[in-house]
């Protein structure tokens, strides 16, 4: 159990690449912290610095209050689970899990009981004498976890531990990782690319972009109150739609029509000295098929009419894609998000608007549809620096 | 289906033919030596492939004299020691080359390549003089040292190729599990590099075992003369006797350790030892 503090931690690789810049994070004892961000933003680098596998260029890493910059990995008492599992192929599952204990010169009886206990927790008992090469992906993943938990380390570091598993297994393992962490109460830093993992696993999420921390907070807080355009676009799936808009006496001219802003949004924007030209963001789940709304409710929001380009029925819900006439908002942040997700996955940055409708919607491809949304949900961003003008955290 | 079958049968036959030609081409001289070693003195030159009269006399003769036994011990001792040292040093150097970035790495690789390309014959005279001055001439170290020098580039090259194949993350994992760099190397990396180590050991051993040039130039007595050199000093029981039979028997005998060495280590060269380490 440990408290881990990163104090202005910076990593510059020998070739000059700045991978992590002045990272400040305080991880409380027993906390589960998630690092997310697009590929190459420095997640693994940050994790490796905590582990001691990479040197820290400047700044200080403190574990339980003591400076740990110069400590060798083996003296930090931290266990790591690698994306590739990194199991020792020449050892059986039992020997793999016992390896950290053997290095620590623990006596045979204790090694045996600890390994068996861990195997019990991870449901590996019947595989103890097999080789990693004969195991399935999920089993290997559990062996890697087992190797981490046997010696009850101060902290766990996990670098995309589930990304090699198929979707279903990933779901199962996600639940077991979560349960395991709660059960053991060990401080955990977890790197992931996966929206669901980021939203469901952690107590807090750290969003990174280009080596710089964008925002730290609980998953719900980041979803409700993104500090900037990047976080807004990164958290949530499908991601937020962004449209260019013009602020004019309390109303917003946008490709979705002229929207009357609510008092709350207007006050926040005024307090933030919003410029005239802004980027308006709306999450897909904040739209609804207007035909399904009660009249009274409908009056409280705005409506626009557009032709449904593509309709995806997921069973429990429907995704309707619309093309809007005007060019959609583009900023450096949005381009980076699009590049990371492979444009198609972030329709909000193409020329389409994604909306999530109830399954009972009668929307049809090629037909016009009245779409309702709540203007109070609109978030406004400054196109010059991406700052959230309606931030109320 | 039938046509496909015919094609594969035809292909198989062609391959079988090619295989047989290659094997026969490679083995005829060896079998000839084996045949000679079993012939009696009288039938040595009769040109028969299969001896008309079988005899073990040649083998009995060579094992009856120190002329063969001493060199055999020298050969075994010198080759095994040189192989051990070259492989251990080669492992360390190859690991450094495959894994670490250190100043002068390119120079090290270049120099070792240079040594491998250096014609050995041009070094014989200087080595002869140096060893005479240092008192290494005609001693075991006098041969072991040049063998290590010439085996190292080979060892470093083969081993660094194997080290590069071992996933980097295994070593990081070992460090996280509490291993010192030394423990990570000996407990995780070395066992995984085992196939490479054994392959290298075989190659180095064969190189030392078969060397004639250094063995003949840097030795003068049975104190350190190895079998390839000793063979050239074989004479018959009298000056006029033809030593062909005994030379053949000795040649057959010194091939045996190599065959044993290869067979013994081949079992350990298990392909795909690293499978299952990462991903799946
Ligand atoms: N050994 C290295 N030498 C130089 N630059 C490096 C090295 N390792 C990583 N980088 C750079 O540092 C940055 C951060 O890399 P890092 O591996 O931490 O990214 P990541 O967030 O883990 O990405 P991914 O999600 O793809 O794993 C990248 O721009 C990368 O090019
Ligand atoms: Mg990474």
TrEMBL record, chain A:
Q: What is the official name of this protein in its record? A: ABC transporter ATP-binding protein
Example of a GO MF term = ATP hydrolysis activity
Q: GO terms for CC?
A: ATP-binding cassette (ABC) transporter complex, substrate-binding subunit-containing
Keyword Signal in the entry? The reply is: no
Q: Kindly give the NCBIfam families that the UniProt entry links to this protein.
A: PRK11650.1
Lineage of source species: Bacteria, Bacillati, Actinomycetota, Actinomycetes, Pseudonocardiales
Highest taxon listed in the record's lineage: Bacteria
What Gene3D superfamilies would the database entry show? 2.40.50.100, Nucleic acid-binding proteins, P-loop containing nucleotide triphosphate hydrolases
Q: Which PANTHER family match?
A: MALTODEXTRIN IMPORT ATP-BINDING PROTEIN MSMX (PTHR43875), TREHALOSE IMPORT ATP-BINDING PROTEIN SUGC (PTHR43875:SF15)
Locate the coiled-coil region(s) and give their ranges. none
Please list the residue ranges annotated as the ABC transporter domain: 4-235
* Pfam families, sorted: ABC_tran (PF00005), OB_MalK (PF17912)
One GO term under biological process is: carbohydrate transport
Presence of keyword Signal: no
Q: Which UniProt keywords apply?
A: ATP-binding, Cell membrane, Membrane, Nucleotide-binding, Translocase, Transport
TrEMBL record, chain B:
Q: Which domain of life is it from?
A: Bacteria
What PROSITE patterns does this protein map onto?
Answer: ABC_TM1
List UniProt keywords, sorted A-Z: Cell membrane, Membrane, Transmembrane, Transmembrane helix, Transport
Cross-referenced InterPro entries: BP-dep_ABC_trans_perm, MetI-like, MetI-like_sf
The terms describing its cellular component in GO are:
plasma membrane
Coiled-coil segments: none
The transmembrane segments are 15-34, 76-98, 107-128, 140-163, 184-207, 247-265
Annotated membrane topology is: Multi-pass membrane protein
Naturally occurring in which organism (per UniProt): Prauserella flavalba
Similarity comment: family membership: Belongs to the binding-protein-dependent transport system permease family.
Q: What is this protein called?
A: Sugar ABC transporter permease
GO biological process entries: transmembrane transport
Give the UniProt subcellular location, in the record's own words. Cell membrane
Locate the ABC transmembrane type-1 domain: which residues?
A: 72-265
Record keyword Isomerase present: no
């Amino acid at each position: 159990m440990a408290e881990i503090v990163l104090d202005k931690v910076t990593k510059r690789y020998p070739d000059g690449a700045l991978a992590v810049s002045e990272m400040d994070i305080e991880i409380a004892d027993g906390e589960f912290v998630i690092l997310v961000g697009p590929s190459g933003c420095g997640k693994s680098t940050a994790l490796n610095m905590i582990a001691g596998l990479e040197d820290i260029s400047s700044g200080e890493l403190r574990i339980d209050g003591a400076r740990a910059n110069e400590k060798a990995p083996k003296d930090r008492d931290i266990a790591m689970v690698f994306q590739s599992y990194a199991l020792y192929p020449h050892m059986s599952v039992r020997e793999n899990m016992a390896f950290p204990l053997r290095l620590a010169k623990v006596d045979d009886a204790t090694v045996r009981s600890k390994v068996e206990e861990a195997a019990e927790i991870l449901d590996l008992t019947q595989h103890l004498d097999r080789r990693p090469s004969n195991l399935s992906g999920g089993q290997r993943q559990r062996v890697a976890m087992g190797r981490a938990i046997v010696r009850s380390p101060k902290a766990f570091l996990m670098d995309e531990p589930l990304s090699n598993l198929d979707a279903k297994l990933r779901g199962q393992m996600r639940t077991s990782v979560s349960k395991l962490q709660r059960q053991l109460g060990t401080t955990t830093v977890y790197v992931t690319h996966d929206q669901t993992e980021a939203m469901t696993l952690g107590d807090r999420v750290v969003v990174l972009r280009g080596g710089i921390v964008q925002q730290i907070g609980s998953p719900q807080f980041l979803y409700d109150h993104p500090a900037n355009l990047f976080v807004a676009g990164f958290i949530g799936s499908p991601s937020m739609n962004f449209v260019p808009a013009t602020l004019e006496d309390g109303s917003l001219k946008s490709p979705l029509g002229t929207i009357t802003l609510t008092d709350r949004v207007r006050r926040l924007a005024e307090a933030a000295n919003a410029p005239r030209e802004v980027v308006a963001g709306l999450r897909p789940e904040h739209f609804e098929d207007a035909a399904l709304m009660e009249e009274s409710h409908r009056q409280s929001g705005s409506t626009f009419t557009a032709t449904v380009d593509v309709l995806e029925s997921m069973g429990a819900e429907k995704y309707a894609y619309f093309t809007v006439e005007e060019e959609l908002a583009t900023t450096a942040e949005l381009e980076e998000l699009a590049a990371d997700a492979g444009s198609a996955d972030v329709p909000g940055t193409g020329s389409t608007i994604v909306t999530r409708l109830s399954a009972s919607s009668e929307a049809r491809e090629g037909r016009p549809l009245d779409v309702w949304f709540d203007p109070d949900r609109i978030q406004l961003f400054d196109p010059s620096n991406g700052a959230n003008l309606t931030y109320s955290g | 289906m039938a046509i496909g079958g015919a094609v594969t049968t035809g292909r198989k036959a062609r391959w079988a033919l090619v295989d047989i030609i290659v094997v026969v081409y490679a083995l005829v001289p060896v079998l000839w030596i084996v045949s000679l070693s079993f012939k009696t003195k009288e039938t040595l030159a009769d040109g028969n492939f299969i001896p008309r009269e079988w005899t073990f006399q040649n083998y009995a003769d060579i094992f009856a004299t120190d002329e063969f036994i001493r060199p055999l011990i020298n050969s075994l001792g010198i080759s095994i020691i040189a192989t051990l040292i070259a492989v251990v040093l080669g492992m360390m150097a190859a690991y450094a080359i495959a894994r670490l970035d250190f100043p002068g790495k390119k120079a090290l690789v270049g120099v070792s390549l240079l040594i491998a390309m250096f014609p050995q014959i041009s070094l014989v005279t200087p080595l002869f003089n140096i060893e005479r001055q240092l008192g290494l001439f005609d001693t075991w170290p006098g041969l072991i040292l040049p063998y290590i020098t010439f085996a190292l580039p080979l060892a470093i090259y083969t081993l660094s190729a194997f080290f590069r194949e071992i996933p980097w993350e295994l070593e990081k994992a070992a460090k996280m599990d509490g291993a010192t760099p030394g423990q990570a190397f000996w407990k995780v990396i070395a066992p995984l590099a085992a196939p490479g180590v054994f392959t290298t050991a075989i190659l180095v051993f064969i190189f030392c075992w078969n060397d004639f040039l250094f063995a003949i130039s840097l030795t003068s007595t049975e104190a350190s003369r190895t079998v390839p050199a000793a063979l050239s000093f074989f004479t018959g029981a009298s000056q006029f006797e033809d030593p062909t039979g005994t030379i053949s028997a000795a040649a057959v005998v010194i091939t045996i350790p190599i065959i044993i060495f290869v067979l013994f280590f081949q079992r350990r060269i298990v392909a795909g030892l690293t499978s299952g380490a990462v991903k799946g």
